[in-house]
Specification:
- The complex is a heterodimer.
- Chain A is an all-beta fold.
- Chain A is built from no helices and nine strands.
- Chain B is mostly beta strands.
- In chain B, 0% of the residues lie in helices and 52% in strands.
- In chain B, the strands form two sheets. In chain B, strands 2, 4, 5, 6, 9, 10 and 11 form a seven-stranded mixed sheet that branches.
- Chains A and B meet through β4 and β8 of A and β4, β5, β9 and β10 of B.
Chain lengths: 110, 115
């Protein structure tokens, strides 16, 4: 399974944008890039996913490098409720299995 | 639409015992996956079921097993419990299997403590 590399932790101020990086240099053509987050004492929740083009939804934006070897999750205006562990995951289009890495623990400073 | 539900939420067992955890997927979802989360190993995939058949399996010993019923509800069983089995066990459901673009919806988990 293709692997991802994320920083262990990041900090951001409330109401400022947050850019969470992810490296996936061994990504294959059938791998989708997914982001999930896990709030304290909860199960993971889906944030966003994409293949090649940048994606936007009500929660976040996903910027994918042209060579697809890296991507960035963008939270446009962080709130205290965005403090969580964010997981960048590669999922083969034929597979339901999710291989989680260590993720990035995001701290939001008031 | 109700989310994924898991029962029980908390469980305490002793070494050598066995335990059964239950997961009810979102209505209409037919694929159920199980994960184990521990502080040391993080989130690890256990297995996935669809149409009462196991489609995928992670690297866990045979003491970990599961099944799925015709109504898509799933159970996982751990026999001969060890201290290292203490973890949060998460269940996730999605509409269909083999669709890596589908969102997986996670339940709140069952916290198992083995004494």
């Amino acid at each position: 399974d293709a692997k991802t590399t994320q920083p262990n932790s990041m900090e951001s101020n409330e109401e400022e944008p947050v850019h969470l990086p992810c490296n996936h240099s061994t990504i294959s053509g059938t791998d989708y890039i997914h982001w999930y987050r896990q709030l304290p004492s909860q199960g993971p929740e889906y944030v966003i996913h994409g293949l090649t083009s940048n994606v936007n939804n009500r929660m976040a934006s996903l910027a994918i490098a042209e060579d697809r070897k890296s991507s960035t999750l963008i939270l446009h205006r962080a709130t205290l409720r965005d403090a969580a562990v964010y997981y960048c995951i590669l999922r083969d289009v034929r597979d339901d299995k999710i291989i989680f890495g260590k993720g990035t623990r995001l701290h939001i400073l008031p | 639409k109700a989310g994924v539900t898991q029962t029980p939420r908390y469980l305490i067992k002793t070494r050598g015992q066995q335990v059964t955890l239950s997961c009810s997927p979102i209505s209409g979802h037919r694929s159920v996956s199980w994960y184990q989360q521990t502080p040391g190993q993080g989130l690890q995939f256990l297995f996935e079921y669809f149409s009462e058949t196991q489609r995928n399996k992670g690297n866990f010993p045979g003491r970990f097993s599961g099944r799925q019923f015709s109504n898509s509800r799933s159970e996982m069983n751990v026999s001969t419990l060890e201290l290292g089995d203490s973890a949060l066990y998460l269940c996730a459901s999605s509409p269909l299997p083999g669709m890596g673009t589908d969102t997986q919806y996670f339940g709140p988990g069952t916290r198992l403590t083995v004494l």
